[in-house]
Amino acid sequence: MVILEAFTYCNAQTQHTSKVDFRLDTEINNLISRMTLREKIDMIHGNGFFTSAGVKRLGIPEFHYTDGPFGVREELHNDSWAPLGLTTDSATFMPTGSALAATWDTSLARKYGRTLGQEARARGKDMLLGPAVDIDRIPFNGRTFEYLSEDPVLNAAMAVSYIEGVQSQDVAACVKHYALNNQETDRESLDVNVNERALQEIYLPTFKAAVEKAHVRGAMAAYNKVRGKFCSANPYLLQQILRKEWGFKGMVISDWGGVHSTVEAANNGLDVEMGSGSDFNKYYFAQPLLDSVKADKVSEQVINEKIRHILYVMCKNHMIGDKDRKEGSINTASHHLTAYHVASESIVLLKNQDHLLPLHVSKIKSLAVIGDNATKKQAHLGFGAGVKAQYEITPLRGLEDKLAGKVAIHFAQGYQEAYQRNEEGEKVPVNTPDWKMIDQAVEIAKSSDAAIIFAGNTRTYETEGTDRTSMDLPFGENELIKAITEANPHTVVVIISGAPVDLSRAVRESKAMLWSGYNGSEGGHAMADVLFGTVDPSGRLPFTFPKSMSEVPAIVNGTFPGENGLADYKEGILVGYRWYDTKKIEPLFPFGYGLSYTKFDYSNVHTDHPLYRSDGKIIVSLDLKNAGTYAGKETVQLYVHAVDPKVMMPDKELKAFVKVGLKPGEQKEIHIPVDVHDLAYYDTGKKQWVVLPGKYQLMAGASSRDIRGSVIVTVR
Ligand code: BGC
Hints:
This protein is α/β, with parallel strands linked by helices. 28% of the residues lie in helices and 21% in strands.
């Protein structure tokens, strides 16, 4: 069979050479020429909630999709969201997006992706619907936990490694949601207006890197509109930018039910329509599209292009004519270890007065563990993608495993997760303290040597489909924290959330505080190891914690949730710390922030030259020393400040970062390369990236507000 042999040839090649692509194109064209129009149409819309058809007689297999970003979803019925109720579809629950980003470790992101790729393969999937990479424009977006960061450089670096990891396992990654799905409120009709500079500098770089650097095979069009057109039928986003400028070769799929037209979507660049209606032949890309081709409203050439994209992905996935496709594996010890490593490197130490942390087993005989989040399993809560975790170690279980036989643990729930409807009919948390529960918790806190409160949000509260209407700690947690910290001076507060919360009150009352994302199957073990000093906390915040919701730019400018269906991103490029720093507003915890049990000294920050050309490369070097007594990891962050620029520039912007492990007393010379081109801004008039000649201050820091050394260079 000539076709299958040709695909085998293509599959044997690992590099992207034009010779291989030419041969592949030819074979794909051959295959397309043998297909009927009906067969083609059947391939470009869902024939199940998570499948699209193949062509059996030509050896083209059915295509299987799966959520999601942080674990392979359980199996559902073909034509409904109801679970099949199998006993064979559990998976590893990986820490969710913001936790992964908090590691600032691209090699962990790659392992994370590889784990997901292997598990997806083991479950017979061809495309994993992740990573989810929309920028955190507002901290109360319901999907902040799933997304990565407010900064495009951190976002892109983590996403690229994640995608490479997934795709190394013969599974396509699908970068989503393209583009500007930065809020859940009105997401299915909202029109986003954003200026071109912000689009290019803030919202698109991660998608661009996914295509150009990671060769991502799938992209999911977002639900919302951008500049008046639905993303699933948006020629500027799908054709001009994605295909023409970036050279994307893979499949553009819709978000589920995100298509609103047949001819427009088909002609403007969407390849596959996915949805959740069970009459699959009624999809816009089913019978209506067949009719539109017959009526000459959509050419068969356009349909052929879509098939070409699908076959390209199938080839790269080694799905056609290849007996050597990787088979994957699931719930393995190595997957659990990766989940553990990501979790343990994502936890952020926010405050540590009097060196209360780490706790020492030798000094504590009894420990009060307080709070509903100590026992809450987060894998499968909320609306949308979740994981039927094979297991999930809760914080309480993690502590029990670590302290068994050494420390007596007393547990009290402390507060209860409950919701009510507000006047607008929105589901909001009940935020009144349960004094009976608090009193019980105070009792055990008083009689224990130390106390740990596990509070924060939950995956029910932070969820796809809705945004939080407040950033306050829910369920009366502030009152619980106050009562326990008063009852026991050795109280540690752990905030579990996927997004920033208003901690201004809690942080005043607590001596020691940690932040953890929804930390996956091994989250509890990781947390116990950080609390008791087996692991130095090396997580750094992937987003700013503002002092209050009223300081968030979209709230200040009155552009959330939008007016008359339009969200106008008036803050432009000033997203996240770019806003707070430029406007000189002090946040509660800045972007990139995180303490350690040890102490890192920075010295001798310098560059290889004082002067650079616009096509040059700057090497920033410094000496980093672990001057404390714990082994630990530091994330050195490199920010750039343009000195007296002729155009508006943010006060500072992250350009690069590196995570370094050092033993006590150890010192290393660190080199961080930055292309001068990366200092460019997007010139809307010229429609291109421009490096302004002039002076730039390169700043090495432990966070966006903790700069430890800087050097000024000139760009000609
Ligand atoms: C979400 C996507 C998800 C899809 C399939 C949609 O509601 O926005 O991220 O992949 O459902 O579950």
